[in-house]
Specification:
Number of helices: 10
CATH architecture of the largest domain: 3-Layer(aba) Sandwich
Strand content: 15-25%
Helix content: 25-40%
Radius of gyration: 32 Å
CATH superfamily of the largest domain: Vaccinia Virus protein VP39
Mean pLDDT: 94
Largest sheet: 7 strands, mixed
Strand order of the largest sheet: 6-5-4-7-8-11-10
């Protein structure tokens, strides 16, 4: 059973559309010598029940890594691209930034980009197209984003463009993850694919070709980008039925503050434990919570604490995970008195401190761990 090329869900049930005897390709057309080998194929179109992507279940065309365009260098195309680039570069302040086109063909869309104050690069898989682009003075080399681990020369890039190429890919996730890994932390992208809404509105069945394995709607395209770490900043359908999106690399959450917080807490509780040992004062923790378990497991308080006091019967007689400090009822204090109590339940610190003094005597020292602050209550 086939699987969705984006989310991996099984494409079960019947296809939503079957097209018998469809052309096997739209490029690399047969000539007289190969015409006898050409055969139509059956195209089966499925819709993923999870992410909604409309897709074919066949093998990709042999040249899916190549960008073969018939637009040439028409003045209309050049003007449209210049206008598109001007708006995008200006809005996202990409002047003097490194921008790469993924799948640049012979440089049809890369050429107008070189007219802006940016560093323009391009990669293309087909060697003959790479040579044509290089002959035109473009900074293009042969490469393809085959896997997430593929490293692109001149990386990291500040931005990327990819025009009507993703719909050809049998593994769009690998391509986008490769791009993600070769961008700066706040990298920007300008991406287009044919809009399936446009095809649906016109019942344009002739747009369903083997070359295009995926048929993205605004929703399924957004899912694809977000699934691969990109936030969609803009999305619309422009002239000619093209779905255009501006995306930004979604950075990893900065957790460096956690390390600082942990180191500070470890140091303070290490000093507190050392002080308890030096003054020959035993200490107990009040509150068998997940916060207490974590603190006891990675600080010296776990070694210093004689036990954990908790009023919940179902926790009593058990042990804190990792640190193995025993959990006891408040009555246990009479059997094994301590001189200090650390409350690890800051929301109830005042109530617990009052209860501790009422039950154990006013002479007991009570502290509350509030964040990384160990405060006397």
């Amino acid at each position: 059973m086939s699987k969705c090329i984006v989310c991996g869900a099984a494409l079960g049930g019947k296809p939503v559309l079957c097209m018998p005897n469809a052309p096997a390709c739209a490029q690399d057309l047969p000539d007289r010598e190969t015409l006898g080998n050409d055969r139509g194929i059956d195209l089966n179109l499925y819709q993923c029940g999870i992410c909604g992507l409309i897709q074919l279940d066949c093998e990709p065309v042999p040249y899916y890594r190549d960008v073969i365009r018939a637009v040439g260098y028409s003045e209309t195309m050049m003007r449209q691209k210049r206008e598109q680039y001007a708006e995008w570069i200006g809005r996202y302040r990409l002047e003097h930034k490194k921008i790469i086109e993924i799948g640049c063909g012979q440089g049809e869309y890369l050429t107008p980009l070189t007219g802006f104050p940016v560093e323009a690069f391009g990669i293309e898989h087909r060697e003959s197209l790479v040579r044509l682009a290089q002959e035109r003075g473009l900074n293009v080399w042969r490469a393809f984003p085959e896997t997430a681990e593929t490293v692109l020369a001149h990386a990291p890039f500040d931005a990327f463009v990819i025009f009507n190429f993703l719909e050809h890919q049998p593994d769009p996730n690998a391509m986008l993850q490769c791009i993600y890994n070769n961008l700066t932390p706040d990298g920007i992208g300008l991406v287009t694919v044919p809009a399936f809404e446009y095809v649906l509105e016109r019942n344009a069945f002739y747009e369903l070709v083997r070359d295009h394995l995926a048929y993205y709607t605004a929703d399924s395209f957004r899912f694809l980008m977000e699934h691969n770490g990109f936030a969609v900043l803009e999305q619309d359908i422009i002239e000619g039925g093209t779905l255009r999106a501006v995306v930004r690399k979604r950075p990893q959450t900065d957790l460096s503050g956690f390390r600082v917080y942990m180191d500070t807490l470890q140091a303070r509780l290490s000093d507190f434990a050392a002080q308890c040992r030096a003054e020959d004062k035993k200490v107990a923790v009040w509150g068998a919570s997940h916060m207490a378990f974590a603190v006891l497991s990675f600080t010296e308080l776990g070694e210093a604490a004689s036990y954990i006091i908790d009023s919940a019967p179902f926790k009593q007689g058990r042990f804190a995970p990792a640190s193995h400090v025993p959990i006891v009822a408040p009555e246990h204090f009479a059997e094994e008195p301590v001189q200090r109590i650390v409350i690890v339940a800051p929301s109830y610190a005042a109530e617990i401190a009052r209860t501790a003094r009422e039950r154990f005597g006013s002479g007991i020292e009570v502290f509350s761990l509030n964040g990384i602050e160990l405060e006397r209550v």
